[in-house]
Write a structure and sequence with these properties.
Layout (H helix, E strand, L loop, with lengths): L2 H5 L2 E3 L13 E8 L8 H10 L3 H9 L7 E5 L3 E7 L3 E9 L4 E10 L2 H23 L3 H4 L2
Antiparallel strand pairs: 1-2, 2-6, 3-4, 4-5, 5-6
Helix pairs in contact: 2-4, 3-4
Length: 145
């Protein structure tokens, strides 16, 4: 992974209407301007990015109970919405292509067990933010070659 591109990922305001249509307990969003023309639909780069996450990120997610697979709820050429649920929280991820070389990804959490989720999230959140940077910068075309 290009560490220079990872450093260019910005944490931005949460404005995604699909993700924030319902109340939530935690949300964050990331954006990046790519060094290439993005030919891939968001589902392609999100799935490729998830497949290539560092083992440390997967271990942290597993410790937090996030072993369930992500389900694609909506997918178009411009946006994908995935959802996943584990014992502590329900997770929504919305990834969007914005123009030919810009991406935005929003994550929203709805706690099922608020006290436990709030205790776990400071550690799990570190892995989440690292994963988000990897996913949003994945070149799915290069990943499949």
């Amino acid at each position: 992974m290009n560490s220079q591109l990872l450093q260019q990922v910005l944490r931005v305001a949460v404005t995604e209407p699909i993700a924030t249509a319902q109340p939530y307990d935690y949300a964050d969003a990331f954006a990046v301007h790519l060094a290439w023309q993005d030919r891939d639909a968001p589902e392609a780069w999100v799935m490729a990015g998830m497949d290539r996450l560092p083992a440390s990120v997967e271990r942290i997610a597993s410790l937090a109970g996030a072993d369930e697979e992500w389900q694609v709820v909506e997918s178009t050429e411009e946006v994908v919405r995935l959802e996943q649920s584990d014992p502590l929280m329900h997770n929504t991820l919305v990834a969007r292509s914005i123009g030919p070389s810009r991406r935005r990804m929003t994550s929203v959490l709805r706690y099922k067990r608020p006290w436990v989720a709030r205790a776990v999230w400071p550690v799990a959140g570190m892995g989440h933010r690292r994963a988000a940077r990897h996913i949003i910068t994945t070149d799915a075309s290069a990943a499949s070659e």
